[in-house]
Amino acid sequence: MTTDAVIRKWGVPFSSVPVPGDRYREFGGRVPDALLEAWRKFGFAGFAKGLWWLCDPVAWQPAVDTWTADLELDPGPDRWCAVTRSAFGQLSLWGDRTGMALTINPVFGTIFPDDQSDEMDSQFDRDLQLYSALLTQQARALDIDGDDEVGLFDRVLERLGPVGPDTMYAFAPVPALGGPMIPENVEIADAEVHMQILSETTPRQIMANPYR
């Protein structure tokens, strides 16, 4: 079972919020069945001490809308929802037409499209995209290197404790405004508010997807 494979890779969740019943009605048929299965098993859950989360797509939609507004991607426009995110706000998005096709790193303003529209014909193909997103994601790729070129997550976790389902680690001042990327400049912030701040201060760059 896929959920067992998630536990083998990420361990049991350290935090979980039950999924409201209306989420299944709203997203059933829109997202892969495998994601609904993960919600039933884990809830909207944080893994690896909060490094990686299964998102509530409704709660994270404002951040998604902010970062996908006016994007000009080769496959054309899509309707996006958040599937997973990192402690630093990196988002993996599902598109109704293009599948598991967009990764956004708001700290650097980098956007990585990966059109999966050729893999949308069957529920098996849709589920396979979701399995890949949950099981091939690497923890190191979710961390951010500081100015000393060493990952920040463990050091920030020790200073501040873990983020919650609606909070994230935030640099103050943000790197785009010249703020140094050191553990002492990180705080826990409301995710919706900080994702908006990042979108207003950090130029967006569409890049080739390094995770492909």
TrEMBL record:
Residue ranges of every copy of the T6SS immunity protein Tdi1 C-terminal domain listed in the record: 138-200
Highest taxon, organism lineage: Bacteria
A Pfam family the protein falls into: GAD-like
Residues covered by the GAD-related domain: 4-105
InterPro entries linked: GAD-rel (IPR014983), T6SS_Tdi1_C (IPR015002)
Protein name: GAD-like domain-containing protein
High-level lineage: Bacteria, Bacillati, Actinomycetota, Actinomycetes, Streptosporangiales
